[in-house]
Amino acid sequence: MTTAVLERPRAGSTRHGRGFWLIAAVYLVALAFSTVPTPLYPLYQRADGFSAFVVTVVFAVYAVGVITSLLLAGHISDWTGRRRVLYAALGLEILAGVVFLTWTALPGLIAARFLTGLGVGMLTATATAYLLELHKAHRPGAAGTRFEVVSSAANLGGLGAGTLVAGALAQFVTAPLRTPYVVFLVLLALSVIAVAAAPETVDTPAARPKYRPQGVRIAGDRGAVVVAALSSFAAFAVFGLFTSLAPGFVAGALHHPSRLLAGVVVFVVFGAGAAGQALSRRFTTGLITQATGLVVLALGMATTSLAGFLAGGMIAGAGAGILFKSAVSTVAGGAPAARRGESLAGLFLIAYSGLVVPVLGLGLAGRYVASTTSMLWFAGLLLALLSGTATLSWRRGR
């Protein structure tokens, strides 16, 4: 049974244009909330006395929540409606915010991160499909450039903004493990109102399809899908490094313990990713830029240079942003309307695997070798993956 997606409402609908920007703002806020704990991990470590490896476990719990949610619910907005799924996702994030606020010990941190992951998993594919449909409704026949730039910028810009806001608040307020969550609980509540004001784009069928878990199902040309999947995995591996271990590396190996700096480091990487998406959409440019950034990052780590570490992160982040934008554009454009949410959920499932698998590997390696050594291994393996992706893309082009 197929689901009718409302692709052709009134041309130039003002309501759909307003809804496009409302959902973009919701997407940004929800993703920003997901990275609030990043610059706070050193504070949690000092309060509870756990190691850097436990930080990777906490981060992995978040990613497991995302993947679980993508598997179970990432595709159901294709037939239940986009707004219903966004309500549920925001509800989970609000619940996570309450847990963060009231239970600052390690078990509470783990529970809150898992809830956050569940919310993000439901939201990412749904919000991306929603933005594309609102864009088409507002500008029928127009190119998808606005959708590509805004959806990718909301994703990466939100991830970066969360660390910057949390880092600044943690540096200058008296309750650094609580105040950031109060601020974002207010923003999440406003996001629920924003979703209510946006028009629905899915016509719910009279008889619902039989439920089944998502799996990794991405509609479209197989070769293009494989390249998109590998690109998204490589891009999110860089983002995973900077949202988990980078703040601790900067505070420890590089001897810069500022909480604001920890937030700025991550913001710079995601900000560069968003800027890269706005400046380029070429897949090859993304590959070359990310590879170059990884080399600079490795040199910065080997020489314990904060400037080199930041420069490498910026360049690699810009390349990762371009690759991720290319992957989303490929999948969103190649999937039929009735399978768009499902296909994007499959892509995000692979991308978030890239977020967790390398980081867990780094955490395990860090128990036996120096953090600089394990991160250099990470850079080398990721360069090999980018090389393989480039080769596959070149063969497909031929």
From TrEMBL:
Keywords: Cell membrane, Membrane, Transmembrane, Transmembrane helix, Transport. It is found in: Cell membrane. It comes from the Bacteria. Pfam families: MFS_1 (PF07690). Residues 18-398 form the Major facilitator superfamily (MFS) profile domain. It is a multi-pass membrane protein. The chain crosses the membrane at residues 20-44, 50-73, 85-106, 112-132, 153-175, 181-202, 223-254, 260-279, 291-309, 315-335, 347-369, 375-394. PANTHER family: MAJOR FACILITATOR SUPERFAMILY MFS_1 (PTHR23517:SF13), RESISTANCE PROTEIN MDTM, PUTATIVE-RELATED-RELATED (PTHR23517). This is MFS transporter. It comes from Paractinoplanes bogorensis. The lineage of its organism: Bacteria, Bacillati, Actinomycetota, Actinomycetes, Micromonosporales.
